[in-house]
From TrEMBL:
InterPro entries per UniProt: HAD-like_sf, HAD-SF_hydro_IA, HAD_sf
PANTHER family: ALPHA-D-GLUCOSE 1-PHOSPHATE PHOSPHATASE (PTHR43611), FLAVIN MONONUCLEOTIDE HYDROLASE 1, CHLOROPLATIC (PTHR43611:SF3)
Organism: Salinactinospora qingdaonensis
Protein name: HAD family phosphatase
Length: 203
């Protein structure tokens, strides 16, 4: 894979570079919380957008507990928080290897993730972000995908035009918005398909 034009490739993190939290991790959070899965996870996701945009963890989990009609002790909250953060830090080796190959070939890489401050803080010190020249987290910007404003912010910060930018994400709504802005976007399903797409784009 060689680069025959200048291009910046922007990667999403969750379920592109990272693995989705597995059943063991989810079961641990359910056990600590004492809340059935069918109640806990809708509450978890209903408040996640604000958490991703900068809401502090204690307030996020207070809101989740309120939706679940329960309360948690400080110890429970700490264990739930730790289990949740840890569940998002496991990465897909094939995706990481592809990113390393792109970096070796001189492709400019950036990260754009909907991530709360707790996960963003861990990722900033993570070995997997070393190939990236820029890291963008929704918690810092106060915006989250698929809001067009977050894409415009990133393009401005990178001084990259949409036509010079490739975006990779696993969520269709995020891809749709990127394409509407003129970004060459790829809906991620697996690393082999992504590598084929990038080979076609980058040469």
């Amino acid at each position: 894979m060689g680069v025959d034009r200048q291009a910046t490739v922007i990667f999403d993190y969750g379920e592109v570079i990272s693995l989705a939290p597995d059943s063991t991790a989810r079961a641990a959070i359910e056990r600590i919380s004492g809340v059935p899965a069918e109640v806990l996870w809708p509450a978890y996701w209903a408040e996640r957008g604000d958490y991703d945009r900068g809401l502090a963890a204690p307030e996020y989990w207070r809101r989740v507990a309120q939706r679940c009609q329960t309360t948690w002790s400080t110890t429970q909250l700490q264990e739930i928080w730790a289990a949740d953060v840890a569940s998002w830090l496991h990465v897909a080796p094939t995706s990481v290897a592809l990113i390393d190959r792109l970096a070796t070939r001189g492709v400019e890489l950036a990260l754009l993730s909907n991530a709360p401050a707790d996960i963003a803080g861990a990722l900033r010190r993570s070995p997997i972000v070393r190939p990236f020249s820029a890291l963008f987290f929704s918690c810092d910007i106060g915006l989250s995908k698929p809001d067009p404003a977050i894409y415009r912010h990133v393009l401005s910060e990178l001084a990259s035009s949409p036509s010079e930018t490739i975006f990779v994400d696993d969520r269709e709504d995020n891809i749709v918005t990127a394409k509407e802005l003129g970004i060459d976007a790829h809906h991620y399903t697996d690393a082999a398909e992504l590598e084929s797409f990038l080979s076609d784009r980058l040469g």
